[in-house]
């Protein structure tokens, strides 16, 4: 008879003994003073709320109860013996990860004692590091608001960041504490911004310690995201003066150490925040009554036609001069040459297009003059309109670079060349507007072809950006090499491939090949699950949180998972204490269906997190293991793999992409002998059978 579902077999580990799987019948005096605790992993206490999660074969430790341990450590951290105090703080930092213990310790006013140790102590070594670690773990549980911190405590934390001689771990923890404080209230943001200068953060970014560098970048990003638009603009201007981009490009992106996911995310956010400074100008229409804007517009005309205008200005009447200006604005490519400000009323791109044109005319005057004068001398129908092209190109660049869009909480996609160049957006425009003129000539375009030309230019830009060039010079080389004829070849190849795959016999062959290739994809997904993936637990306050690893056993029967430390990339399966038998898995939930996304529904929901969230429902009680994938690629592979384990179809978009690639390769190999042979839509007719079947050859006569 199988055991009841609510009964599990566990091993109890006594102090100094080997854990044994035995039947126990005991009664402890003063049982309330004792508790069971997981012996592996995070060593969580067993309570009424989580005891249902105990699995068969779990190893538990009999230990003192959370309230007794909290009382003991509360006394220990007040000891006059430095060794006892240090050991107590070290144990406190470890046990504070458990929510039950944390609540007991906080209920005894334990945080007040931690504040006292920090505010009154002069230690800057191991004891302080354990104290700050314990404080961070206790605050993680959200029992206490960050706004309740005293000014003396905050100033002490700030002093550790600003010290030159202090333990690196203390500075890392101090930076993390400040990073958590900044988003919680305006008052704390202003305090941290005032006390920790940008110069100090830049100093931390220049150290060789990668973790300290990471924490400094995290605080810098937190300050930028919490600032108002005006404050953010001032901060970014100051950072530009200090050449932060060049430093990041040289010492972080191109350092000998590989770039971690966390740093890649912060660089993405810094790039996004910087580009979003263009949003205000992008969404502002031109004001025809603004003297400053009218002068910028006139400067475009004067730069292009300066010698002609000066020679004739004194000889012409006002009416003739106005007519000359209108003619020159028409040569510049404005649609409304009598009132060119009307062309810039559309927002986006608004005034950003005007800024780009002025930047191009002032910083590359020779290229600007050549563009305008070259097109002025062409026939009207073949001239490339500079102003109209600039306005549309600015809009394309805003869309491609996601200007004005909110930062993603998980994205890591940044352009290395962004950090290698000041005035990146304007410099990119200067390259691309010359590309427009080049492509226009290659296409021999007329005014009617304007949209087609800009569509080709957009394709040239996006294809080149996808290659992640490391500098604008490399981008310029590659985008110019991708000329109109190359675009046509690429389009033709894609079109021919599509036409080949739509022939009826080919479609039939595709259907026959599909089962075999889908099985190949299933095996690849399961292999990926066996290799495992590093996941992050994203809290409501910040992105940076605990790391955990999950992987499938080689026999595909058990999912192993557990917490890991920063820097561990592929832990052995034996080091992951938690297990879920695949046989106990009931279903897979994704997106809004997941319990961990529903819990956060009261706050501002992030679209990116929703797109990366999935959960496994397992066991009779329907417990959930919640995931947030690091990338969309990982999300697709894991949801596909879990569906395979559940005996369901793979539904991710990656499955279809991989299937198309494999089918394309297999079809090309199968049809290799039929190159330049047209495949008929219908099979050839089967010939009639012969009138007689007497065509057998008798080998015996040949042998004689």
TrEMBL record:
The lineage of its organism: Eukaryota, Metazoa, Chordata, Craniata, Vertebrata. This is ELMO3 protein. The keyword Acyltransferase does not apply. The keyword Protein biosynthesis does not apply. One of its GO terms (biological process) is actin filament organization. It comes from Pygoscelis papua. Transmembrane segments: none annotated. PANTHER family: ENGULFMENT AND CELL MOTILITY, ENGULFMENT AND CELL MOTILITY PROTEIN 3. It comes from the Eukaryota. Pfam families: ELMO_ARM, ELMO_CED12, PH_12.
């Amino acid at each position: 008879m199988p055991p009841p579902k609510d009964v599990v077999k566990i091993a109890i580990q006594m102090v100094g003994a080997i854990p044994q799987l035995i039947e126990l019948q005991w009664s402890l005096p003063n049982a309330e003073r004792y508790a069971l605790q997981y012996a592996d992993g995070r060593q969580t206490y067993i309570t009424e709320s989580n005891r249902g999660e105990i699995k068969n074969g779990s190893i538990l430790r009999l230990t003192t109860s959370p309230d007794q341990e909290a009382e003991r450590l509360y006394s220990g951290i007040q000891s006059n013996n430095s060794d006892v105090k240090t050991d107590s703080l070290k144990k406190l930092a470890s046990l504070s990860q458990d929510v039950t213990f944390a609540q007991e310790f906080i209920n005894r006013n334990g945080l007040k004692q931690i504040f006292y140790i920090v505010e009154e102590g002069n230690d800057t070594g191991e004891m302080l590091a354990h104290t700050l670690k314990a404080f961070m773990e206790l605050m993680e549980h959200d029992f206490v608001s960050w706004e309740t911190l005293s000014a003396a405590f905050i100033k002490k934390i700030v002093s550790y960041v600003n010290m030159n001689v202090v333990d690196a771990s203390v500075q890392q923890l101090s930076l993390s504490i400040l990073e958590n404080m900044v988003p919680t209230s305006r008052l704390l943001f202003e305090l941290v911004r005032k006390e920790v200068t940008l110069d100090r953060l830049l100093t931390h970014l220049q150290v060789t310690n990668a973790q300290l560098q990471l924490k400094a970048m995290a605080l810098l990003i937190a300050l930028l995201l919490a600032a108002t638009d005006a404050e953010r603009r001032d901060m970014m201007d100051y950072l530009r003066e200090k050449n932060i981009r060049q430093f990041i490009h040289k010492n972080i992106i191109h350092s000998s150490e590989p770039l971690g996911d966390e740093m890649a995310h912060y660089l993405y956010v810094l790039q996004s925040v910087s580009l979003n400074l263009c949003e205000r100008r992008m969404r502002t229409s031109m004001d025809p009554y603004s003297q400053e804007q009218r002068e910028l517009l006139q400067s475009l005309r004067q730069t292009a036609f300066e010698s002609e205008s000066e020679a004739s200005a004194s000889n012409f009447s006002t009416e003739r001069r106005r007519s000359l200006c209108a003619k020159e604005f028409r040569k510049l490519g404005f649609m409304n040459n009598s009132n060119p400000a009307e062309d810039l009323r559309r927002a986006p791109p608004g005034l950003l297009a005007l800024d780009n044109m002025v930047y191009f005319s002032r910083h590359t005057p020779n290229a600007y003059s050549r563009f305008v004068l070259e097109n002025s001398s062409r026939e009207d129908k073949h001239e490339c309109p500079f102003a109209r092209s600039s306005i549309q190109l600015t809009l394309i660049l805003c869309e491609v670079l996601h200007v004005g869009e909110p930062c993603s909480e998980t994205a890591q996609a940044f352009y290395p060349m962004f950090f290698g160049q000041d005035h990146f957006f304007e410099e990119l425009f200067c390259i691309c507007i010359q590309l427009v003129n080049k492509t226009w000539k290659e296409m021999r375009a007329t005014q009617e072809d304007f949209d087609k030309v800009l569509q080709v230019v957009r394709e040239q830009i996006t294809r080149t950006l996808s290659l992640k060039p490391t500098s604008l010079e490399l981008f310029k080389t590659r985008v110019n090499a991708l000329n109109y004829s190359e675009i046509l070849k690429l389009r033709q190849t894609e079109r021919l491939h599509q036409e080949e795959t739509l022939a009826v016999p080919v479609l039939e062959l595709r259907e026959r090949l599909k089962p075999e290739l889908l099985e190949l994809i299933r095996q690849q997904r399961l292999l990926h699950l066996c290799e495992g993936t590093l996941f992050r637990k994203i809290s409501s306050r910040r992105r940076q949180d605990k790391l955990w690893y999950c992987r499938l056993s080689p026999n595909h029967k058990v999912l192993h998972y557990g917490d890991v430390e920063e820097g561990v990339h592929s832990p052995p399966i034996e080091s992951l204490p938690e297990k879920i038998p695949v046989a106990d898995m009931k279903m897979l939930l994704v997106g809004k269906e997941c319990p961990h996304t529903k819990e956060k529904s009261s706050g501002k929901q992030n679209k990116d997190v929703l797109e990366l969230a999935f959960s496994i429902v397992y066991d009779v009680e329907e417990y959930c293991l919640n995931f947030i994938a690091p990338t969309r690629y990982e999300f697709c592979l894991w949801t596909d793999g879990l569906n395979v384990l559940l005996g369901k179809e793979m539904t991710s978009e990656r499955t279809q992409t991989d299937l198309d690639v494999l089918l394309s390769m297999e079809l090309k190999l199968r049809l290799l002998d039929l190159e330049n042979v047209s495949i008929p839509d219908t099979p050839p007719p089967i010939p009639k059978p012969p009138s007689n079947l007497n065509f057998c050859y008798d080998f015996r006569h040949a042998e004689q």
